[in-house]
Amino acid sequence: MLCAKPPAACSRIEIEASHTGQLTKVTLLLFAIAAGISVANIYCAQPLLDSMAQEFGFSRSSAGSVILVTQIGYAVGLLFVVPLGDLLNRRRLVLTQLSLSAIVLALVGLAPSEWLLLIGLFFVGLLAVVVQVLVAFAASLVPPEKRGRAVGTVTSGVVLGILLARVVAGALSDIGGWRAVYLTSALLTLVLAGTLSRIIPDSGSEMRSSYAQLLRSTFALYVTTPVLRVRAAIALLLFAAFSTLWTSLVLPLSEPPHPLSHTAIGLFGLAGVAGAVAAGRAGQLVDQGWGQWTTGIGLGILLISWICIACLHRSLLALVIGIILLDFAVQAVHVTNQSMIFAARPEAKSRLVAAYMVFYSVGSGVGALAATRTYAAFHWAGVCALGASFSMAALGIWALTTRVSQR
What we know:
Order of helices and strands: HHHHHHHHHHHHHHHHH
CATH superfamily: MFS general substrate transporter like domains
Number of domains: 1
């Protein structure tokens, strides 16, 4: 049947049709596992900040730079690597990124100085954007009516990866030091690359253009897609709040009245398993047209979570409840954001996720740096006030933009 649309549109439609329906449940599960292992490379540093600071001699107030430089690398990768998913064969792109990640992680684990550590972590972040290539890849392999669920499933793997990163990193650090964490991750990533080479389906490109045109079209999305601007702004504040908690949590928990081991601190991450549940459910709600309400309720829960988190010194149970609420809210809103922007421009999934996740990365870096410095000046009460401020600002943006076009 001949296409009545312009040639470019026909090409996009044909490619979209050829890719949908290829993602089986088993493959989707493996995508989620791959995303989880990859994202763990970014977050495994959070429970290790104290150990790194002691070995290299930098202060606690500047320990957030370890997280910040990783997030800067992640932001660069989002802008200049992830859009390639619309231009190149996604299978080859994923396998190349994973192979290079294994090499860089090994170099970080052997870093002899602070500067080499930070340079290595920059490239860890740069290559970890394979997670977003996988999210866009999954979205391209299912029909539109199942896109939210697919994104939610892969994001559930991301959430579990973040949680296990903290737990496993804390335990490995107590056994063999922080370097053992990165060397182990290098080995796991190499094994993952070999496994996925047998599993990932092949994929053609979704556009025909030069790399320069690809980048220009990525930046142009900020102008042409209102929902992207709104959701990106919410993401920046959302992940600033998220990073505020997880970057600074190791500091009060490693000193009186709760001088816990790295293993014990890492176990607090398990409380965030609610985030994985939220991610899967949020995608389904977006498919049913409840994206705006999911966002508003999620951001309201995020703000409330800081009341519980502020009670850390009086009750570790209250802290656990706060972590559950925070991770639930963050992942529900995050999945909703991605599902809504994919619906707006389905032919530009990799570029959309790149443009969106840049704000995620910037927010995470800002939250990490601000949290450690705030803790040094104002202790835990100041950190909680900072996180609540980020949360309130995100809720305010949502309230002011509920009528913005979803296209």
